[in-house]
Structure prediction request, 227 residues.
Amino acid sequence: GENVEQHPSTLSVQEGDSAVIKCTYSDSASNYFPWYKQELGKGPQLIIDIRSNVGEKKDQRIAVTLNKTAKHFSLHITETQPEDSAVYFCAASNDFGNEKLTFGTGTRLTIIP
Amino acid sequence: NAGVMQNPRHLVRRRGQEARLRCSPMKGHSHVYWYRQLPEEGLKFMVYLQKENIIDESGMPKERFSAEFPKEGPSILRIQQVVRGDSAAYFCASSPESVTGELFFGEGSRLTVL
Prediction:
């Protein structure tokens, strides 16, 4: 089955700086890669996703890049703000037939004011 | 459009009791997934259901755990004879028929076993 590894497990960034979180996956058949943000006591919320037919996707301050050859993908947050503090999870799936998502272990991002 | 609704949000049980967690998917969604999250850990897949069918239960413990998604009503995750190791947050997610991959999560049910 799929195995997703995520680094770093914790990340502290000065407000206004950029944050980068990296994930690798094992199953070359995976073709859908979402990122979720989980705030304390809440459920995960989808913030951005990318499919294997594109290499990069951007939504305001958030961007995701995908390297299918190397089987890794990254989340980039620019101009970080205190409200970006949360736990971020990457995930991967083969979306043929609504396959389940396999999640990384999470990154606790802290934005230092 | 209401999101994924889970209840109860918090549940306390003594060892040996039963826990029932309910999940109503988003309107129009026919696929339901249950995930478990231990403290300070990621989300582990448990089971994937469509109406009246279990599609993938590869993440479910072989004993004491069961799940259903009846034709009418919410999906239910049932844990019999709970043990302290069952203490965790249990998240339900749903997705629509036509779009694959994207999951919408509920707020979770936090089970504490005393």
Q: What stands out?
A: Chain B touches chain A through 25 residues (CB under 8 Å). Chain B has a mean pLDDT of 92. Residues 36 and 42 of chain B are 8 Å apart (CA to CA). The first strand of chain B starts at residue 5 and ends at 7.
